[in-house]
Every structure is written in C-alpha cells, then in structure tokens.
Design a protein that fits this description.
9 helices, single chain, about 70% helix, mainly alpha
Length: about 220
C-alpha cells in the first residue's frame, strides 16, 4: 500500500489548500451569523404583527395616538397618505399588522426570504418618510441621520438578506433551492460549465502533482526481532 503525503509546508499547493479552508470557514461562519440575525429579526416582527392584529387596545387608542404623532413628523409631500390613514384607520391598522406578520414569519422560517426582504425594504422606507421630521426646532443634517439611523440599519439588513439568500441557512429556503438545483439541466447557465481546454488543464495539473509528490521513505532503523 502506498501512502501519499501532503505537499510540503510553504509550497503553492499547501498555501492554496490553507487559503480555501480559511475562506470556507469564514463563509460558513458568515452564513450562520446571518441566519441568526434573520431569525432574531423575524421574532421581533412576528411580535409586532401579532400585537397589532390580536391586541384590542391597539385598535381602540394605540393606532390613533400614532396617527396624531405622524401629523407632526411626516414629510410634507407624504401628508396625503397620512390623511388617508385618518379616513380608514382600522383598515390601515390591519394592513400594517399583516405586513409585519408576513415579514416576521418569512424571516423566522426562512421562507420566501427575498420577496420578504423586498417588502421589508419598502416598509423601512415608509417608516422613514412617515417619521421624517426630527423632534427639534431647527433640524440639521445630523439630526435627520440620528432620527433615522434605526431605519437605515434595518434597510441595509433587508438588503443583505435579499442579496445573500439568507433563507438557505437554517431555513426552509434550503429545501426549495436544493430541489430547484436538482431539476436544473446540466447545460443550464446557472450550473458551472467546464470547457474541454479547462478539463485538459486540470488533468495535466493533477498528473504533474502526482509525479512531483514525493513518496514517503521507510524509516531506517533496527528491525524488531
């Protein structure tokens, strides 16, 4: 039986292997951290939506108090939307609760994460415009940034969830994507294609590595009697 030893330390092969291991480890860690943040944010939005839909106090006086504050803080060109909320407060209260519950459940279970993240981006933009005016007499630029820092961070989180397919780790999105890739044909542009030249280069590289790899020498010493 022939034992093949790994390439010596400091060679090009060992550096590439160590670099791949470091990159894969950091990528796995990033995916898990992203999934953890997604689940926590989903729990928060689920609580928000469930409170608005199933708490009778919210319909009795909570949403009306919110609309009173929005009259003073909404952007000038966004005022017609606030006025329409005053005309149909119960409908808007149910709609906002359903949107927040939709975002929360989608993030919590990792299902339809990209559409959910897109709706979340629109949700954060809407909250920014509704609470546009800072509670200062003469607001400056940093007052606006300080007032909307939470919504800016929330928008960036939803954008990362959308781009990085956050539901594929610790979520139901992994089942969907695994089934989708099983149905893809080999000639699909999504699947990586290897040309004949690249295959020949990979074969020649593997042959050279097999030739250049030194075989281990048997230890020189006394034989056991």
């Amino acid at each position: 039986m022939i034992l093949l030893t790994p390439p010596p330390f400091g060679s090009q092969g060992s550096q590439e292997v160590s670099q791949r291991r470091a990159m894969s480890y950091s990528y796995r860690r990033f995916r898990r951290v992203l999934a953890f943040v997604r689940i926590v944010l989903g729990m928060v939005f689920t609580y928000y939506g469930a409170t608005k839909l199933f708490d009778p106090n919210f319909f009795s006086f909570g949403f009306n108090n919110t609309l009173t504050d929005l009259n003073r803080s909404a952007a000038t060109w966004y005022s017609p939307i606030v006025e329409s909320m005053w005309k149909h407060p119960s409908s808007y209260a149910v709609a906002i609760g359903m949107v927040e519950l939709f975002i929360g459940l989608g993030l919590l279970f990792g299902l339809a994460t990209r559409p959910v993240s897109f709706v979340g981006m629109l949700y954060s933009i809407n909250k920014t415009l509704i609470a546009w005016q800072p509670n200062v007499q003469y607001p400056t630029t940093w007052n606006y940034l300080d007032a909307h820092m939470a919504q800016i961070a929330l928008f960036c989180l939803f954008w990362i969830f959308l781009v990085e397919h956050a539901g594929e780790t610790w979520g139901l999105g992994a089942i969907y994507h695994a089934h989708r890739f099983r149905l893809l044909p080999v000639s699909s542009p999504i699947m990586p294609q290897v040309t004949e030249e690249e295959e020949n280069e990979q074969t020649s590289d593997s042959d050279e590595n097999e030739i250049d790899t030194p075989l281990p020498r048997r230890p020189v010493g006394r034989r056991a009697v």
